[in-house]
Amino acid sequence: MEYPNVDYRRKWYVLAAVSMGIFLSTIDSSIVNVALPTLVRELNTDFATVQWVVLAYLLGLATLLLSMGRLGDMIGKKPIYITGFVAFTAGSVLCGLSPTVHWLILFRLVQAIGASMIMALGMAIVTEAFPPGERGKALGISGTVVSIGIVVGPTVGGLILDALSWHWIFFVNLPVGIVGTLMVLRLVPNLKPKGRQRFDLPGALSLFTGLLALLLGLTLGQSLGFGEIRVLLLFAAAVVFLAAFVAIELRSSSPMIELGLFRNTLFSINLVTGLATFVSMGGTIILMPFYLENVLGYGTRQVGLLMATVPLALAVVAPISGVLSDRVGTRPITVLGLLAMLLGFWTLTSLSPDTTTLGYVLRFLPVGVGMGIFQSPNNSAVMGAVPRERLGVASGLLSITRTLGQTMGIAVLGALWASRVFFYAGAAAGTDAADGATAAPAVDQVAGLHDTFLVVLVLLAIALSLSLWGLIKERRLQRKAASQARA
Hints:
Blueprint: H1 11-42, H2 47-75, H3 77-96, H4 101-129, H5 135-163, H6 168-171, H7 173-187, H8 201-224, H9 229-251, H10 265-295, H11 300-307, H12 309-328, H13 330-348, H14 357-384, H15 391-425, H16 433-438, H17 442-486
Helix pairs in contact: 1-2, 1-4, 1-5, 1-7, 2-3, 2-4, 2-8, 2-15, 3-4, 3-7, 4-15, 5-12, 5-14, 8-9, 8-15, 10-11, 10-14, 10-15, 10-17, 12-13, 12-14, 13-14, 13-17, 15-17
C-alpha cells in the first residue's frame, strides 16, 4: 500500500540512518559475547554470573519490543527511535564505566531499553520510507547490515580486547551512537500518527510478565533442567499471563496487538515460519563452536572465521532475494529459501570428526543462502500486511520472533544435543549437562549433533509445508480476484 504524505525521494537517506541503529545493536551483542571470558577474569566473577551480562540485555529487549512498537505507532516513530539511540549510547558509556559485574548487568538493561526502541521501529520506518514495489529490496539491505554486524562484531571485539581493556568494547559505541542520532534527527521525517490513541497498560504488563517468565524458564532450564519445579512454575506463569494478555486484548478498545491480524492466514504463516527458522539458527549457532573446537580442534580465530560462513552468505543473498520478491511476489521466494535451508541442514547430518574446512563451508553455505533468500521477502510480507498505524507493532512482532526463536533454539536444541550425547556415551546427564557433554568423546558429540539436526529438519519441513500451503492459498485468492475483475 502507498502511504500518503511520504516523500519517497528521501528513502535512501532514511535507510542509511536506520542502518546505523541496526548496525549498532547488532555489533554490540556479538562483541559482548566474545568478551565474556575476559569479563570473568577482569571483574573477578564466575561464568554463571557473567552470563547475565548477555541475559539481562536479551530479557530486557524481548519483553519491551512490542510496547516500544506500539508507542511508536501512537506518538510517532522518529522521537522513539531517537530516544532509543540516546538511551543505548548512554547505556554503553555507563557499561564501560562499570566498576563491578553487577553494575554492568544493570547498565546492560539500560542498553536493552534503548535497543528495544531501535529494533522495534527500524523496519517500520524503512517500510514507510519506501514504496511497496521496493520494500523487499530495502528490507534485504537491512538484513545485509545485520549480517555485517554479526561478522564484524567478533573481529572488532577481538582486536579491542587484544589492544585495549574490556571497557572499550562499550566505549566504541559512543561515536556510532552520536553519528546515528544526528543522522536520524536530520534525515528521518517525523510522520505524525492520525488521531489520539490510548496505551494499553494492562495488556503491556501482562505481555511483559508472560514473556519474562517464558524466557527465564527457557534460560534457567538449560542449567537446572526443564523438569525442575522452579522452571515448571515459570512456564506455568508464562501460560497464565500470556492467556491473560489475550483476554485483555479481546476486550480492549485500544489493544497492544490487533488480534484480528492473525485471522489473516498468510500473515500468521509468515510469523510462524520465521520463528521456525530462528529456532533452527539459534540452536545451530550455539552448538557449532563446540564442534569446531572440541571435535575438529580449531583455534578461536579459525572458529570465528568459519562461523562467519552463514552471515556472509546471508549478506550477499538477502538484497537479491528482496529485489526478486518485489518482482515475483514474496511467497514463492520464501518457499525457495526454506527449501535451501532444508537441503543445508540435511547435509549437516553428514558432519563427522574428519570433516575438512572446505567440507564445513560447503555444508553451511546452503543454510546461509537459504536464510538470506527467506528472510527479506518474509519480513516484507509481514510489514506489507498491516495498515500504517500498526507498522510499529508489526516490526516489534518480527523482532520478537527473532529473539524468542533464537532463545528457544539455544535452550531446547542445546538441551536436546546434550541429552543425546549422554545417551551415546552411556552416561547420565548431570546438572550442568552442556559442560558434561562437551567432555564426551568426539564421536558421541557428533552423533548428538546428527540427532539434533534431524529434529531441525522436521521443524523446517513443517515450516515448508505451511509456506507451500500459503502459496497455494495465495494463488487461489489471486485467481478468484482476477475472475471477479473480468466479470
